[in-house]
Amino acid sequence: GAVVSQHPSWVICKSGTSVKIECRSLDFQATTMFWYRQFPKQSLMLMATSNEGSKATYEQGVEKDKFLINHASLTLSTLTVTSAHPEDSSFYICSARRLPEVRAQPQHFGDGTRLSIL
Amino acid sequence: AQTVTQSQPEMSVQEAETVTLSCTYDTSESDYYLFWYKQPPSRQMILVIRQEAYKQQNATENRFSVNFQKAAKSFSLKISDSQLGDAAMYFCAYRSARWRDDKIIFGKGTRLHILP
What we know:
Chain A is 0% helix and 51% strand. Chain A has no helices and 11 strands. By secondary structure, chain B is mainly beta. Chain B has strands at 3-5, 10-14, 19-21, 24-26, 32-39, 46-52, 60-61, 64-69, 74-79, 88-96, 104-106, 110-115. The chains are: A mainly beta, B mainly beta. Chain A binds chain B through residues 32, 34, 38, 42-46, 49, 91, 93, 95, 97, 101, 103-104, 106-107, 109, 111-112, and chain B through 33, 35, 42-45, 47, 50, 52, 91, 97, 100, 102-109.
């Protein structure tokens, strides 16, 4: 149980296009999902916290107009990289906190999306 | 703000031997969770072990155990009987126990090589 699916797993697109990445909790509901970014050989950096039915909370330095987050249901959050440029190329990972929310419950991670902007 | 520090960018261990990965953290909170995550080349994040700060007993999961020193803010991971499949990037991570403030803060990672 507690499977999180990300789609696509790898995307290559031209500079200037927008790319949407989906994060789905397959067998549980999640009011909160998290989006991380990981550059090669570096750690995961939290970009934003996605809350179902409300606006996402962005970390300092993350452009909310650049990285649009929508959490329209209890099983789906999407990250849209708008007008992507080569510097946006990275590995994006989502995680989800399952319901019911109980103490010490771990987050469940997706397998990540490799984004390459040409 | 909380920080997590892993001072060993890379480590190597002979197969079947024991290795310890170091992690220190900084926080003003008294209630929190600590984790070790493994990221193999597939880049999937795999939870190895977790520790609740209010529990004094060190967590153990099969060949993986931690040495949690709350006063020293230290949280090391010991891998016993190392196997080739243990080769991966290991991240130490912190998470507040405050309700709905559970974003995870990761260290920079330690790349573990297993020598056959």
